[in-house]
Amino acid sequence: MHAYTVQPARTLRGEITVPGDKSISHRSIMLGSIARGETVVRGFLRGEDNIATLNAFRAMGVAVADDGETLRIQGKGLHGLEEPTDILDCGNSGTSMRLMTGLLAGQRFFSVLTGDQYLRKRPMKRVLEPLSRMGATIYGRAGGDKAPLAIVGTGLAGTEYSSRVASAQVKSALMLAGLYADGATTVHEPHLSRDHSERMFRYFGAAIEAGGTTVTVRGGSELSGREILVPGDISSAAFFIVAALIVPGAELLIRGVGVNPTRTGIIDILTAMGGSIELVDQREVSGEPVADLLVRHSRLKGIEIGGDVVPRAIDEFPVISVAAALAEGRTVLRDARELRVKETDRIAAMATNLRRAGVTVTETEDGMELDGVGQLQGCAAESFGDHRIAMSMLIAGLAAAGDVTVDDAECIATSFPTFLPLLETVAER
Ligand code: S3P
C-alpha cells in the first residue's frame, strides 16, 4: 500500500487520451472466447480487473495472443470452454464475477470464483437468484450471497425476469446464461443500465432483441469473432472532465471517448451544473458512439440529481461529488442506493473524505446533500481500497488550497494504471 500526494495545480492544459473502456474490455474477452473464429481487440484496458477476466478465460483453455497492443482471441465456440483446474480469481472486479457466474452456470463443468477482500463482501444474490430460476446450481457463502461461489454447470431454461435494480451486471449475467438456455431469456430493468452487452451481442451476430428497458436473448445462438476497437472509458475521462471544470483557466481535449448514451449521465449532470463540455467529431466505432470532449473551466452551481440519470452516471458520483463540493449552492443526490454496494460504500467514503477537505456533507440512505465551498482544504484522504475514491480525492487536490494525500494509490491500477502520470502531464504548477 503506498500513499500518493497531489499538489494544487495553477492550471491544466493539454490533449489526452484515456485508456479503453472497462466494461467493453471485459465483454470483448468473454464474447471473443465463446465466439467462432478469431476476435481481434485493440485498445483493450490493461487494468487489473480486465486482466482477471483475461486470465480466467485463459484458464478455461482459450488461446489469447498479446503483442502489447492487440489481443487475438481464438474463440472456442459456445461449447468449447474447458473446466478450469483451479479457482478463478476475479480480484476486485464485480463485473468479472457477476458476468462469469452467468456464463459458467450453463457450462458442462464445475468452476469456483473468488475475489479480493472487497469483492467477497459484495452482494451476489442479485445474480444467483434469477440464475437459479433458470435451473442453475450455484453455492456461495452467506446463504448464496457472497463469494467464493461454486458453480455446478448444468442445463438451463429461459426465463422472464424483472430486476429490482438497474444493473448491467445482472442483465448481462442473464444474457450470457441465456445463450446456453433452452428458449428465450428476457430481462426487464427499472431504468436502462449500460447497454454494451446488447450492442456487442448484436455486433457478434447473436439473436437478440433489445428495446426500452427490455432485452431478449435466444438460446443456442452462435457468435462470430469480430474486430473490436475499444473506445476510451468515459468513467476514466470523468476524472479529467471534473479536473478541467474545477481548476481555474483549465482547458483539456480528451480524444476518443465512448459516449454511449447509457454512460453519458456525467456529461448531462455537469452540463446542468453549468460545465462547459463540448462533444467534437462524433462517430461510431465497433457499434459504439465515440467523440472527443473539449472541457473548459466553468463556474458550477449545485443541482438536484435523481431518477433515470443515476444508472447512466453510476460510477461517476465520487468525482461528481467533488465538482459539487466546489459548486455554488446545494447539490442533492437521490436514488443512488446502489453506491453503497460498489467497491466500497461510496456515499460514506466520499462523505468522510469531503468532510476532511472542509465540506459539510449530509449522508442520506440513497445519496447525499452537500453545500459547495469556495475552496477545498488540503487533507489526508482514504481510498477505502476503491480506485474511484482514490482518483476522485486526487482530483480534488488539484483544486485545493493545500496538498491532498491519499493513503493507498495502488488500487487505482484496477481501472486506470496510467492515471498518476497522466495527471502530472496536464497539471501546470
Ligand atoms: C458494469 C456495471 C455497473 C458498474 C460497473 C461496471 C458493467 O455495475 O458500476 O463498474 O460493466 O456491467 P452494476 O451493473 O452493478 O450497476
Topology:
Layout: E1 4-6, E2 11-17, H1 22-34, E3 36-42, H2 48-59, E4 63-66, E5 70-76, E6 88-89, H3 94-105, E7 110-114, H4 125-133, E8 137-140, H5 141-144, E9 146-152, E10 156-157, E11 160-162, H6 168-179, E12 181-182, E13 184-188, H7 196-203, E14 208-211, E15 214-218, E16 227-229, H8 234-246, E17 251-258, H9 265-272, E18 276-285, E19 288-296, E20 304-305, H10 317-325, E21 330-333, H11 346-356, E22 361-364, E23 367-371, E24 379-381, H12 387-398, E25 404-406, H13 419-426, E26 427-428
The structure holds shikimate-3-phosphate.
Residues 23, 26, 95, 167-169, 172, 193-194, 314-315, 338 line the site of shikimate-3-phosphate.
Structure described in brief:
With 429 residues, the chain is of the alpha/beta class. Helix content is 31%, strand content 28%. The structure holds shikimate-3-phosphate (S3P).
Explained architecture:
The chain is of the alpha/beta class. It folds into two domains: 215 residues, Enolpyruvate transferase domain (UDP-n-acetylglucosamine1-carboxyvinyl-transferase, Chain), CATH 3.65.10.10; 208 residues, Enolpyruvate transferase domain (UDP-n-acetylglucosamine1-carboxyvinyl-transferase, Chain, Alpha-beta prism). The strands form seven sheets. It has a five-stranded mixed beta sheet. A four-stranded mixed beta sheet has the order 4-5-3-16, covered by helices on one side. The radius of gyration is 21 Å and the shape is globular. It starts with a strand and ends with a strand. The protein binds shikimate-3-phosphate.
